[in-house]
Fold each of these.
Amino acid sequence: MNTIKKKYKILFGDKMINNNWDLVLEKQYEKPYFKNLSKFIKDEYINKTIYPKYSEIFNSLKYTDYDSVKVVILGQDPYHGENEANGLSFSVKKEVKTPPSLRNIFKELQNDLNIERKNPDLIDWAKQGVLLLNSIMTVIKDCPLSHKNKGWEIFTDIIIKELNDKKTPVVFILWGNYAKSKKNLITNKRHFIIESPHPSPFSANRGFFGSRPFSRTNDFLQKNNLEKINW
């Protein structure tokens, strides 16, 4: 096996995440769909420019262990611009220009909680229990939704179902029609769903602005004796 292929062999395996997600998802790792997805993704990284970096694909799960999830913000697929994606939905690397949707998220954050945020890397949210999950975890450079229907949606739907079974309350933030389409997976009455139009410039003025997702999330967490998120 050449060095390049060996590099892309190490991520998909028995312990991909190295926290409790591996226990929650271990049955998925052995299923045919996931083995096919694994092979497809490795081949894509070898032959094309794919985002995020191979080592960052599962950052959302690595930074937010199953047991620590308090909030889920669901995206569709990663940013497809050069070096933008970092494995967390809506988040980009610190040195990258803030994308329009994220700028609108920060505008709503300021209007909602009077917090002026500049850093577009949302890793601090992830470390506090905000699972920043993209339903499709990889993308070809400059080709949005290019890895749609390759198996990622099966895997991430399982993640949502596992969180639905969680014994502690979780806030699910669903922005836009795609995220709202996952609402049927969230059936447990202990959880709280916040839904609104997408923060994209095309839809933010149709109900995203003024939806107050950050204060509503913290109010719910506080009522359930869970620590609030420092947004």
Note: The chain has a mean pLDDT of 94.
Amino acid sequence: MSDSTVFGRILDGELPCHRVYEDDLVLALLDIQPVSYGHTLVIPKQRVAYLHELSPESSAAIGRVLPFLCRAVMRASGCTHYNVLQNNGRPAHQAIFHVHFHIIPRFEQSGLGVGWKSGSLAAADAEKLLVELRASLAEDPV
């Protein structure tokens, strides 16, 4: 992956940001185009485009700090509800090809609006999918 993403440039010190939190593996910063007050981005310092490319160490580091950062965003923004969003690929609305999580406070008049068209899963399709998923998991154990 190219280091020329906006997040790579921030990590390299080429672009400024409003740092919320930083450790050896993770950087959290305010979104400069927030959906709502307190909108915070959480990025790994590992430079990969997609979540499935992250190392176990980077994944664990993000998992460790997300609840901590969500609590801080709630206290600072005054929200009591929020979304955590992470997109992979252009069709899934990813715009910056460096893994990142959005913590988006939800207020009555602002926050993330989500349209969700639920389908159904037939028992036979579920069984077939389970076989395929379990085989895939066996190829790449945790």
Note: The helical segments are 6-11, 56-77, 123-139.
Amino acid sequence: MSKAHPELSLEVELEPTFHDLDPMNIVWHGNYAKYLEIARCALLDRFNYDYPQMRDSGYAWPIVDMRCKFVGPATFKQKLRIRAEIVEWENRLKIEYKIFDQASGRIIHRAHTTQVAVDLKTQEMQYICPPVLWRCLGVEPQ
């Protein structure tokens, strides 16, 4: 397992909109996947390896696992801060997330996603992440 580096994290801010709410006037649980995606794309873009660059490098990176822990509800226009951090990169790309209430700093959601590299030509899953990921992240193979 990789040791996380502080520079492998990023925070984004957002406010849930009206169409994100369920009939109970809280954010519908399915929208948290969208919030994670927003943070993940911002993080990967920081390393110039967002989805278009992944494709151009010859790999797809499907999510093969996503785990969520709902700690508290998010509400309409609540200011949220989402922290995404890359914690593994050798055999898979694992990103951990924390969603905070901006005002109190209270964690309202924890999650992680796991992605694996798939060679676009052969459609074969790679059991070791391709060196392009390590180069973009600025980390050395262990």
Note: The first helix runs from residue 31 to 46.
Amino acid sequence: MKKIKTLASLSKIIKQAKKRNNIIVFTNGCFDLFHYGHLVSLRKAKKYGDILIVGVNSDSSVKKLKGKNRPVFSQKERVSIICSLEFVDYCVIFKEETPEKIIKFLKPDIIIKGSDYKEEQVVGYDFVKRYGGKVVLLPLVKGFSTTEIIKKIKNENLKDN
């Protein structure tokens, strides 16, 4: 996929984009079970800038964050879904539990997260504020949470047995 990039290849892209005064937007997530809430959030994120870069947690990172039975889908599958969205410009996979390294490397103009966070809790908040960047919190789409969807599926399976 042409949209999947390493930090090194993103560096060149970002340099060129900044020369053109493009606004770089960054968001990240596990996207373990891609759902409508993810779709809406990513579409809204793109509206804040010219280039949308999405950090996707690696399989090992998701396992550390969410538990031994996760991820539901492999990083290859998750990144393929994210990259298929026309409004996503680039994806980068990260192995760490947070995207701090990516944020410090890319220096995005805007970091987007869901409103389940407070601004100060967002990884990279202090860093982007120092150079004039900002954090934008998007409202969550009610009724869509990977954890809740998994619970619902498990409950349905219990009813069937």
Note: The mean pLDDT is 91.
